[in-house]
Write a structure and sequence with these properties.
The structure is a single chain. By secondary structure, this protein is α+β, with helices and mostly antiparallel strands. It is 49% helix and 11% strand. It has helices spanning 9-23, 27-40, 43-62, 77-84, 89-95, 112-128, 133-137, 187-195, 227-232, 249-262, 276-288, 294-304, 307-327, 353-375, 383-392; strands at residues 71-73, 98-100, 103-105, 173-181, 203-209, 212-216, 220-224, 236-245. The strands form 2 sheets. It has a 5-stranded antiparallel beta sheet with strand order 7-6-5-4-8. β6 (212-216) and β7 form a beta hairpin. The longest helix has 23 residues, at 353-375. It starts with 8 loop residues before the first helix and ends with a helix.
């Protein structure tokens, strides 16, 4: 404030420019740091580092006032594996992070607008970077057409994915997306009549990796492969091999603990905006740098785009949380015996306001007629007496 008092326009302009430079993004340094990450790492490691930094930037843009998203601990195992080992700390510095002890902290002056340049540079680098060898063998999940997804028999359950040693090309742990149909096949016949759109399935997804299936249901769940089908009664509808990850299991488990507390707790579930498929997509992004098929993520938007979908939104949201919670059994040690899927909760019926008004009007008219009949001495006999009279008639 003292510097501003009595300053001439040129001095004020210089002070504003100095503050903007301190709070903004050094585009040249950012581009150079991205190029350095690409140069010094293999394509999979470079994509992993850049996608992780991109996720950090997206978190700040989404919640600019939340300090936890502005602090990155260099001692965090995931950060060490994905960023530090890939020489990515200079990239964080170029974006605006500053060292504070063992952490890198993004000052409040670096806002979502300033981060937009960094985000565009990271997204452009990821789009133009060479794809990992494992992803080249199969289309990336984010653009994979439905026809490329293999549909096993109706009784199929997830089985152990092939190990890196027996899978042939590529190295690392296979990552598989398991897709289930929550409607049990009913969506295909009902969606067109109810919503006016074609819906193949109502998808629930889980990510299979490290011999376990990770999914979002009443919180983040991890179970042995096949356990979800056993306790939910839902067979696997589709299976998609997403690629291979070089991350160790303990790093991924730590990530699941973090996102489970931050964004995927039981209370954070939303059938339309924060569901199991969003969790699977973030897991795939973390493990591989690519997401799950976009048509799975877009289904809620397609439903809400219809007039009936808008009318049913409160009901769908009310049904979603108890249904989602009923699917999860936590870290099951072994598969439970098969059970029938829990029925959808039915909300109490409330007649429309117009129907209630008509019924009340009819009741009031009948009461008025009875009152008028009594006052004229023509009241009907009590029902019991009338019934006895009818019974004695020949």
């Amino acid at each position: 404030v003292g510097a501003l008092q009595g300053a001439n326009p040129a001095a004020l302009r210089a002070l504003v420019q100095q503050h903007a430079a301190a709070a903004g993004i050094d585009k040249a340094a950012c581009d150079a740091a991205i190029a350095d990450v690409l140069r010094r790492n293999s394509p999979p490691a470079a994509r992993t580092a850049l996608s992780t930094v991109l996720k950090l930037v997206d978190n700040v843009i989404a919640s600019p006032a939340d300090p936890k998203f502005r602090r990155v601990k260099a001692s965090n195992e995931a950060v060490k594996q994905r960023i530090v080992a890939a020489h990515g700390m200079p990239l964080l510095a170029a974006i605006g992070f500053r060292e504070e002890g063992e952490s890198m902290v993004l000052p409040p002056g670096v806002d979502a607008v300033a981060l937009g340049d960094a985000r565009r540079a990271l997204a452009l680098a990821l789009a133009s970077a060479p794809a990992p060898a494992a992803a080249a063998a199969a289309p990336p999940a984010a653009v994979a057409p439905a026809a490329s997804v293999v549909a096993p028999a109706a009784s199929a359950v997830p089985s152990a994915v092939p190990s890196a040693a027996s899978a042939g090309d590529g190295a690392g742990e296979p990552v598989v997306l398991y897709v289930y149909d929550l409607s049990g096949g009913a969506a295909r016949g009902m969606a067109q009549a109810l919503l006016g759109i074609d819906v193949e399935i109502i998808p629930h997804t889980g990510v299979g990796v490290f011999g376990r299936e990770y999914y979002f249901s009443g919180g983040v769940q991890r179970e042995p492969l096949g356990a979800f089908t056993a306790h939910s009664g839902l067979p696997v509808h589709q299976t998609l091999e997403l690629g291979r990850t070089s991350l160790p299991r303990e790093v991924f488990d730590e990530y699941c603990d973090e996102v489970g507390a931050a964004r995927f707790s039981a209370d954070a579930y939303s059938l339309l905006e924060n569901n199991c498929n969003h969790f699977s997509n973030e897991c795939a992004q973390f493990l591989l740098g690519v997401g799950i098929p976009q048509h799975i993520l877009d289904l809620p938007r397609a439903v809400l785009a219809s007039p009936m979908g808008q009318m049913l939104r409160p009901l769908l949201e009310a049904m979603g949380r108890p249904l989602n919670a009923s699917l999860g059994h936590g870290d099951a040690a072994a598969a439970a015996p098969p059970t029938q899927p829990s029925p959808l909760p039915q909300p109490p019926y409330t007649p429309p306001a117009g129907v209630l008004a008509a019924v009340r009007a009819e009741e009031e008219a009948a009461a008025a007629a009875r009152s008028a009949a009594r006052s004229a001495g023509k009241a009907r006999p009590p029902r019991a007496a009338e019934a006895r009279a009818r019974a004695t008639r020949p």
